[in-house]
Structure formats: structure tokens, C-alpha cells
Amino acid sequence: MKTLITTFALGFITCAMPAMAEVLGNQKKAGTLTVQQAAEMVKKANETPQYHLDLNRLKSIEPDVARELAKYNNGALWMNGLTSINKEVAEELAGCMAYALSLDGLTSMDKDVANALAKFQSKVLSINGLASIDKKAVKELAKFKGYRLILGLTSLDKEDAREFAKGEGNGLSFDRLSSIDKEVAHELSRFMGFTLSLDGLTSISKDVAHELAKLRPRYSNTPSKCLRLDGLTSISKEVAQELAKFPGQLMLNHLKSMNSEVARAFAQYRGNRLEIIRLESIALDDLNMLKSALQKPVYEDTHSFGGHRYNFARKLKDGTDISKKNGKLIQFHQDGSKMTETVYTNSYVVSRTEWNEEGKLTKAEKYAVDGFFGMEGQSVDTDQENKDPQDSTVQLSETPQDSSPPSTPNVAKPEREYLPQDIIFQAGIPYLRGENEPFTGICVVNWQSGSKRLETRYQNGKPVLKSTWDEDGNLIEKETY
């Protein structure tokens, strides 16, 4: 199960702490720590750039040990081996100075423990193993005021949802809920924090989507809400139409495909950020339409990202590069013949041509580049042979052109090739070390075998041609700018 704790931990490199080996070894055998061991461990952890302290083998804990562990002031304190704690231990841990406290092994919790943990003053409190909880404990735990409260509840009724929605924390995660009804969704829509995460939902109804889309900021001058529904792998047009009304950041990062009806629904999206970073399949006309619709902020948006309101996968399954702005992307079969050629203008796909392994033209289409209801893809006769037209690209200089086959962009070769370590970037512009003029030449990255992997040609600091080879030396992609 993905949680903020996991994401946080993966974002950093764990540093080795040899001096703690003996303490950890003793803890592994006994499942306990003495006060002195806890103090030594925390002292060493605070003195090193270690961004989590892993105490998951700890099976039991006393209040005085918890007091020492609470002095850990770095990243995340993991204590997922504890299946229960008492009020005194909870009170000590609530004073922990770590960014995050993870108690995912707790399977039950009474009112007093919930009241104590709710006073945790730092950012993230994770209790992701807690499948159920009584009403009194819910009321206390809902008082948590930190950045994110992560709960492992597998069911949620409207009364509990109402209590959690009253909380003053900034985020709620119910990522083990596999379903919710309209009433629960309605209560959760009243949550006043920033992020509501429901990544465990694999499908939702139109009515649930309608209620969740009602999430609104606490104050008019604060950033819009973030609604996470990363468990959805597909949605209907009706659900998309409801979610498109959400004014905040909508995360659908496991949505793999999008048909025209869903794309047209999301073209009406009114929020500030639509994230679908694992999108694999969408018609290119629909992609252009959607990018056009989400290119500029709308009146609800005061916190746009990068001038547009979408974050899609970099490439589709067919190789289409969603992030490419201008130029041409060519992919090759293993025998060196062209497989696809896609032309981009101002971030839109304007044409795509495909050939099979026998060199036969199988697709040649042009696509709409503006408006919601532009022309459909224009197919041409696919019975003609692969003519392999010559590519056009910028010439690097007036030096003699290389006599390469017509399928290779006609670009002059500089005299020398350079490795990445020979080049430095200043304000995004490449310079050869020791030179003051923007780099003109070739930067090469090799495979471990020494064969060429990537070649990027620059003119006056700007890339004009990038070629990619596989480990067997086969040219697999060529990109112009």
C-alpha cells in the first residue's frame, strides 16, 4: 500500500550507521530496547543525514524508552512492529520531533490512546494497519492537526466520515477503503483540509463522483483542494463529467486509457491541475483537444503550474511523446527501417506516419491542433511503399554535409564528440568547460560496453538532434527540435 511515509522514505538515500549495528542486533533478537540503547541510537541518528529511523522490529515499548525515541528529530520514525501501545507510551510519542511517525502495526486503539496520538505536533501520523476503530476513538483521533493523517480503515460510515471531516488537519488518507457510498462521500466533501486521498477505490459511481467534486478550499485565498483517486484504472463518461467540476488538483495517476467521451468530459475540467501520469492510450486528436482545453488557467485557478493545467505521462504506449513541443520524433525497427514518424508543433501532434517491418506504409494521419471539436484524423492511402522521405532539420554549420542515407537527418557533424562531464549547464544553457560561448557540438552517452547509447547535437546551446541506440547498436529513435 502506498502511503506518504513510503513516498517520503523513497525520496532519500539511507545512510549506513555502523556504530548502531550492535544495538540493532540486540533489538532484533529481543524485540525490545533499554533506555540507554534508545538514547544512544537516537543520538547517533540525529548526528547523521539519515532520513528515517527503522525500529520496525520493536515488539514492545515502555514509556521511558518512548521518551528517548521521541527525541529523534530527523525524517520518519518507523515503529510498525508494535501491535498495541498504552496511553503513557502514546503521550510520550506524541512529543516526537520527527517529520513523520509511523505506527502501522497498531490493530486497535482506545479513546485515551487516540486522544494522545492526536496531539502529535509534527507533520505525518500513519496508522495504516488500523482496520477499524470505535466511535469514541474516532472523535479523538479526528482532532489531529498535522499535515497528513493516514488511516487503514477498511470501512467508513457517514458518522465517522463526518467526524474526520471536522478535523483541523491538512490531509486525510483512507487508502484501504475499497468502496464508499454517496452519503460517506458527501460527508468527506466537507473536509476543510487540503488533501483527501482515496487511492483504494477501484471504481466509483456517478453519485459518489458528484459528491467528491464538492470539495472546496477552507478560505477563498488558499490553494485549491487536492483529491487523490489513484486507484481508478478506468472511468465512465458520467463519472468524468462529475469529476471535471472539481476546482482543485485531481489525481488519476493509474488511469491507463481514455476514450473520446471521457477526454471531451475532461476538456471541461475547471480545476488547477489534472494529473494522469500513467496514461498509455488516447487518440491523438483527443490528446490535442485535451491539451488545448487545459492550456490556460480558468477563473477558479490562482495557483497554476507551469502555464498549463495538466501533467500527463511523458510518452504513450505507442511512443508518442506528450511532452515534446516542436520537431520530429522518428522510431526505427531493428533492421533500421522507419517504424513511426510523429511531427509536433507548439506541443501538439500534427501528423503521424507508421510503417510495418516490411516497409509498407500502414498509417498517415494529420490531427486537429486547436479547438474542442476539430477535424478528425485524415487518413491517406496506405497501400504505397515506404518512400522514406528525407528529414529536414537545422544545419549546424556550413561545413560539408555527411553523406548518410536519406532517412538520416541531414546535419553537419562537428569535429569532436564530448562526454557529459565535459559540459556544464548554466541557466539551462550548455557550455563546454573552460569556454564562454554556448556549446556547439555533440554530447555522447555510452553504454557500459562502450557502444553509443545517446547522441545529442547542439547549435549555440540549443539541441537540434538527438539519436538513441539500444545495447546491440540498433538505432531506435531520432528526435529533431
Helical fraction equals 10-25%
CATH superfamily caption of the largest domain = Ribonuclease Inhibitor
Distance between the termini: 41 Å
Low-pLDDT runs of 5+ residues are: 1-26, 300-304, 371-414
Q: Could you please say which CATH topology of the largest domain applies here?
A: Leucine-rich repeat, LRR (right-handed beta-alpha superhelix)
Based on secondary structure, the structural category is alpha/beta
Spatially, the strands of the biggest sheet line up as: 1-2-3-4-5-6-7-8-9-11-13
Q: State the name of the first-level CATH class of the largest domain.
A: Alpha Beta
Domain count, please report it: 3
What would you call the shape?
globular
Beta-strand content: 15-25%
Mean pLDDT: 84
Tell me the Rg in angstroms: 28 Å
The appropriate CATH architecture of the largest domain is Alpha-Beta Horseshoe
Question: How is the main sheet built?
Answer: 11 strands, parallel
Which short descriptors sum up this protein?
21% helix, Leucine-rich repeat, LRR (right-handed beta-alpha superhelix), 13 helices, alpha/beta, 481 residues, eleven-stranded parallel sheet, nine-stranded mixed sheet
Question: How would you characterize the overall build of this protein?
Answer:
By secondary structure, the chain is α/β, with parallel strands linked by helices. The protein folds into three domains: about 5-310, Leucine-rich repeat, LRR (right-handed beta-alpha superhelix), CATH 3.80.10; about 325-390, no CATH class; about 400-475, no CATH class. The chain is about 20% helix and about 20% strand. It is built from 13 helices and 24 strands. It has helices at about 5-10, 20-30, 35-45, 65-70, 85-95, 110-115, 135-140, 160-165, 180-190, 205-210, 235-245, 260-265, 285-295; strands at about 50-55, 75-80, 100, 125, 150, 170-175, 195, 225-230, 250, 255-260, 275, 280, 310, 325-330, 340-345, 350-355, 360-365, 415-420, 425, 430, 440-445, 450-460, 460-470, 475-480. The strands form four sheets. The chain has an eleven-stranded parallel β-sheet, with helices on one face. Helix 8 links the parallel strand 5 (about 150) and strand 6 (about 170-175). The radius of gyration is 28 Å and the shape is globular. Residues about 1-25, about 300-305 and about 370-415 have low confidence and may be disordered.
